[in-house]
Amino acid sequence: MREDDFDKIYRNVSQDQGSLIREDYYSYIKEGFKKWAHIYDIWIMPISRVRDKVVDFTNVRSSSKILDVATGTGKQAFAFAKKGYNVIGIDL
User: Fold this and answer.
1) Is the dihedral of CA 56, 57, 62, 67 positive or negative?
2) What residues make up the domain containing 78?
3) Does 81 lie in the same domain as 51?
4) E strands present in the chain
5) pTM higher than 0.70 for the full model?
6) Are 88 and 65 contacting, i.e. CB atoms less than 8 angstroms apart?
7) Do 39 and 62 reside in the same domain of the chain?
């Protein structure tokens, strides 16, 4: 499907239908995260050592404030916090 075809179809969807599609999508995503959340930290463990290296690589001053957007379980935010940074992590 070409992009302009998608745009035509999307414009023809009423506001109510669009709202319903978004609700279905977010419900699907929410259920998916619920299903995988309990094993996520185990699954991601092989790269956990990289988190401290990311902190060192950024080379920011110790007084810096760090914003971790899409923080997930917050593991990267905690890696910065352990080294004394003022960290805020947000996720939807």
Assistant:
1) negative
2) 47-92
3) yes
4) 65-69, 86-90
5) no
6) yes
7) no
